[in-house]
Specification:
248 residues, 7 helices
Length: 248
């Protein structure tokens, strides 16, 4: 009996020494009771997953930052420029208006030169002859200035010679005056030429002033203003010559 008790005591002492070596309470190594037992170590796969989780979260955060960085602040949109086609149409309108007025002016200059040349050597009165010479000189100069101005604008006046019913009527009147200037002579030619010049210059002045008021091109308006001044001077001078003829 004493031997059995001694053996049991020796067994228990040995068992307690083994537990002390493993730092674990309890009867068997590796077996735990409650919280005081051995903590179960995580598996390698679980560790890798845990390590990867923060990286994924970081990647999400980075993607959010990228999305925010990609969102550029709204910039004020620049004003849309007028389409080139509209600007071109506006320029064409200006050119069209200027072309018709300048073509008409060229036609008037040519008629004035032609009529003055018809009577220059056939009129009797010296004042009438001087007036005819002035018409040749001034309207020839006007045509030269007109040619240079048209070149600057880059247009062809031949394209602005309308063949309308009103133009045909005007042409018929011009032909009638030319025919009469050819047939008349002496004092009758003097009076008819001056009277026709006064009427023609008044009509041309009113017409060109109306055309100028519709033109938007500033350079063309300035050019026509200069020509209108000359036409008015011719009108005033013609009235002086006619008055001199009546006094005789």
């Amino acid at each position: 009996m004493k031997k059995s008790f001694s053996f049991l005591a020796a067994f228990l002492v040995a068992l307690g020494f083994a537990n002390a070596q493993t730092d674990q309470p309890g009867f068997y190594p590796g077996f735990t009771y409650g919280d005081g037992g051995k903590q179960e170590q995580p598996k390698e796969d679980d560790q890798q997953k845990d390590e990867q989780l923060p990286k994924k979260e970081e990647q999400k955060d980075d993607s959010k930052q990228d999305d925010k960085s990609s969102e550029q602040p709204k910039q004020e949109q620049p004003k849309k420029e007028e389409p080139k086609e509209e600007r071109t149409n506006e320029e064409q309108t200006k050119q069209h208006e200027a072309g018709h007025a300048l073509a008409k002016l060229q036609k008037v200059n040519n008629i004035e030169i032609e009529f003055a040349q018809l009577v220059l050597d056939r009129v009797q009165n010296a004042s009438v002859r001087e007036y005819a010479q002035m018409m040749i000189d001034h309207h020839t100069k006007a045509n030269s200035e007109l040619e240079l101005f048209v070149q600057k604008l880059g247009i062809q006046l031949d394209e602005y010679q309308p063949q309308t019913p009103s133009e045909h009527k005007e042409q018929e009147k011009v032909l009638a005056i030319r025919e009469k200037l050819t047939k008349l002579s002496g004092s009758e030619l003097d009076r008819f030429y001056i009277n026709s010049q006064i009427k023609m210059h008044k009509k041309v002045w009113l017409m060109m002033r109306a055309k100028r008021s519709k033109i938007k091109d500033a350079d063309c308006r300035e050019f026509l203003a200069k020509q209108l001044k000359v036409i008015k001077e011719h009108y005033v001078e013609g009235k002086k010559v006619r008055k001199a003829l009546k006094s005789r």
